[in-house]
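Long-time lurker. I teach an intro course on protein structure, and each term I like to show students one example going from raw sequence to a predicted 3D structure in token notation. This year I'd like something fresh instead of my usual example. Would anyone be willing to generate the tokens for the chain below so I can use it in lecture? Attribution to the forum is fine with me.
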Amino acid sequence: MDWDEAIHLYEKVIACESETLKIRATLRVGRLSNLAPDNVLARTVPILVELLCNPLNSSTPSIQEAAAYCLSRIARKGDGSLATIIGQSGVVPFLLRLLSESQARFRRVLIKCLWAIVTCSSPCRAIVVRNGGLEIVLNLLASSMDDTRRYLLETLSALALLREVRRVIISFSGIPLLVEAARSSNMVSRARAAQAIGLLGVTKRVRQMLVDLGVIPVLVELLQEGDTSTKLVAGNALGIIASHIDYIRPVAQAGAIPLFAELLQGSEPLGREIAEDVFCILAVAESNAISISQHLVRILQGDDDEAKAAAADVLWDLSGYKHSVSIVRNSGAIPILVELLQHGNDDVRDKVSGAVAQLSYDEGDRVALADAGVIPLLMNLLEDESEELKDNAAEALINFSEDPLQRQRVSEIFDMPSFQNMQNRLVRIRASDEQVVRSLRHMSIEQFTWDSELG
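-- Reply from a regular --
Happy to contribute to a lecture. Here you go:
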């Protein structure tokens, strides 16, 4: 098709007197929009906006309906640049005014047009909000129970990525609608809603509202069924929800731990980072820590070095938790850690050495480490090129040297400079920590909480 000739012909039809021909031509432009080049479609936008805002026959919405249909088709094409052109054309205030006044099929077409502009173009969201679009969407959602509700929910989830919108959503009791958007609609919209939920969940009051509305199973479902980007968003939001002690167990009971283990093994570095953080939160509960450690042991026995390094990093944190039993020791992880300390790659060995150093502070874990043959390995690491490996090895050996039952095993390293340097440094660190504790004991509550900028 000669598209330049086609657009010229459309311009001639729009200039004629027959509204019927205008409607037919406009509908045909909409149907052909998937085939037409973007630059050609961009030339039709001013014509369509004029038809929508200033129809020749104001007694019937037919030409406006055709224009709105065509604009919605064009907005959905490509990378969102056409939607941005439409949104910045000045059509938004007229579209919103018509939307608040329309009924039946015309309203449905207008809702889809607004949905296409908002979901396909992030710059247009602020334009819609500035012109009162959020209030209109919320009002429509209050009464809409037909097939347009999905489009309104998806529009809301897109708008909710704006900070000012989230404040209004809280004030106008829109949180249930956002949870509904995360539960239904297409996956892209659900991911947007989950992202907004994560941002809102930072506030304690809103977090409670979200949990009461059943957001935990919704986010777990997204973490299970979503694509990679959706899993990252849902995992992050779920971690924010779990960051309060009251919700740690409900998140685990909803089945989140195996899903975060999968995220830890995934190819996305951000996903591993999110999983590490959330595991450290969930492990505050001992039952969760036991389940998490079992998954970590399985990962350590696998073939993925990046996942093994991440798992060792989590065990490093878990080994510092003061549970009634040694979670890491009882999981069977210690022999595996010792094996990886000897044969893992550099990143894995760095993380494992940190976990071993932390485990060495516990008497029972020291026995398990020694029985697994860690002491000769730690002695050899004192000569390693990696400063982190040397420091972690020396820290662990210091703890062994201070244990009457293990001291004899490490006596040959007492004269090594690297060991002595670390020993002196550790003494200074411990003295500094003790000084901070003593200072805090002498501070009153008023002194501790006083803010000089507010005083």
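Some talking points for your students: Residues 440-455 have pLDDT under 50 and may be disordered. DSSP finds 29 helices and no strands in the chain.
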